């Protein structure tokens, strides 16, 4: 085999391996959030994971920027609440934060079991609980209001679950919350991978341990394969984090006002360019996922991307082009590069010249040399 042929063969194999890796990442990004969480728990429950982390110190975490746990005032012990897949107690507590202290007081006095039975329709009555817990008149009113809302929502959820589902199911990933002048990403799950951060793998120490013959060849192969799984997890979790982080920064005005008029026109392609991933990775990462705004409104991640808004701005610039040419302000039509600069200067929309060209073609608008 000639050297040239051998080099071409190696390049072909390398390209196929990259394609396989890309396909695996695409499939992994497309994994539904609930299945991904199950996979993640399985990985971290593996004795090998714990051994590599605790014994050999080969695995640690690197926290993501601007990510924080939710305030403890929004948390309630899970054993106090009966399990119901269609009922979001945390959401109800968010809307009734003053009820949390009263519920904790009741739960501590009557115990988790009796409290759970009561919420599930057990024998205990509100009056009996009020007397046993020595609730003040104000606490009684707060308690009654919460229980009424709890029961109404339980009835609604149980009846609506019998109806066909017409709207897609979204997995709420995090809330964007204001803390002073800052916007913070607060994962809704206390054990969220967004709180833990990405895995850091100490490859130098791994090589050192190999040199010291701490591992057999079989162990080395097994650990290397395990590291590949962790890197794949990192690609998914980091991509989703970067999407939420950049949305928080780009759409800051919207999160502060929650006025749709303050939404910055943004495409998945533009965000992919900023992050340094393929647009398909953005599309897969945001599918079926949502976040909560500072006012508690749930918004699908796709809500923050709109081709139509970008197209409307492009049409505005082209209409302006006609007026300026007619008035003699412009000597000729704007090039795609000049349109790109105007989009950035006037509307804060940062996209590549190629993306401008793509949108222009989608609107069936000819290039500048044909618009004269």
UniProtKB/TrEMBL annotation:
Gene Ontology MF terms: DNA-binding transcription activator activity; sigma factor activity
InterPro entries: RNA_pol_sigma_54, RNA_pol_sigma_54_DNA-bd
PROSITE patterns noted in UniProt: SIGMA54_3 (PS50044)
Domain RNA polymerase sigma factor 54 DNA-binding: 231-371
Domain of life of the source: Bacteria
PANTHER family, alphabetized: RNA POLYMERASE SIGMA-54 FACTOR
Protein name, per record: RNA polymerase sigma factor 54 DNA-binding domain-containing protein
Lineage start: Bacteria, Candidatus Aerophobota
């Amino acid at each position: 085999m000639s050297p040239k042929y051998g080099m071409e063969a190696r390049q072909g194999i390398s390209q196929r391996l990259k394609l396989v890796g890309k396909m695996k990442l695409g499939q992994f990004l497309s994994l539904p959030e609930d299945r991904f969480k199950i996979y993640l728990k399985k990985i971290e429950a593996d004795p090998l994971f714990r051994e590599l982390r605790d014994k050999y110190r080969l695995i640690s975490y690197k926290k993501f920027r601007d990510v924080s746990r939710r305030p403890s005032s929004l948390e309630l012990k899970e054993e106090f609440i009966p399990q119901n897949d269609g009922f979001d107690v945390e959401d109800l507590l968010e809307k009734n934060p003053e009820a949390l202290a009263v519920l904790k007081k009741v739960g501590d006095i009557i115990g988790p079991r009796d409290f759970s039975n009561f919420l599930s329709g057990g024998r205990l009555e509100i009056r009996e609980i009020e007397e046993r817990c020595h609730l003040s008149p104000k606490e009684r009113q707060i308690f009654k209001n919460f229980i009424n809302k709890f029961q109404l929502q339980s009835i609604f959820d149980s009846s609506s679950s019998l109806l066909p589902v017409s709207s897609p199911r979204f997995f709420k990933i995090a809330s964007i919350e204001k803390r002073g002048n800052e916007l913070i990403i607060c994962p809704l799950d206390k054990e969220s991978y967004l709180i833990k951060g990405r895995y850091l793998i100490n490859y130098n120490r791994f090589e050192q341990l190999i040199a010291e013959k701490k591992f057999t060849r079989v162990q080395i192969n097994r650990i290397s394969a395990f590291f590949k799984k962790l890197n794949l997890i990192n690609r998914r979790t980091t991509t989703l984090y970067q999407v939420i982080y950049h949305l928080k920064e780009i759409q800051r005005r919207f999160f502060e006002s929650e006025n749709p008029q303050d939404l910055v026109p943004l495409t998945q392609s533009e965000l992919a360019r900023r992050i340094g991933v393929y647009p398909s990775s953005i599309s897969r990462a945001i599918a079926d996922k949502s976040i909560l705004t500072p006012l508690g409104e749930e918004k699908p991640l796709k809500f923050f991307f709109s081709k139509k808004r970008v197209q409307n701005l492009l049409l505005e610039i082209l209409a302006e082009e006609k007026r300026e040419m007619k008035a003699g302000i412009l000597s000729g039509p704007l090039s795609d590069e000049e349109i790109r600069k105007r989009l950035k200067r006037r509307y804060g929309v940062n996209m590549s010249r190629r993306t401008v060209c793509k949108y222009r073609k989608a609107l069936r608008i000819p290039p500048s040399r044909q618009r004269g």
